[in-house]
Amino acid sequence: MDEIIANYAAQCYGITKSQLKPMSGGHCNYVYEFFKDNKNYVLRITPNESDINLTKGMVGWVNYLSSHDVSVSKAVPSANNKLIELIKSRSNYYSIVAFEKADGVLAEALSKDEWNDRLYLSIGKVVGKMHTLSKRYTPSGDLTKRPEWDKITNCYNPIEKLDPSHAMIKEKKEGILNYLNTLPKDMDNYGLIHGDLHLGNFFVDTKNSRITLFDFDDCCYGWYAMDIVLPLLDILVVYNELDNEKFAAHFIKHYLKGYIMENHITTFWIKQLPYFLKLLEIGIYTMLYNKYDSKDINSWPGKFMPNRKHRIENDIPYVDIDFEGTFAL
Question: Is the pLDDT at 2 greater than 80, yes or no?
Answer without folding.
Answer: no
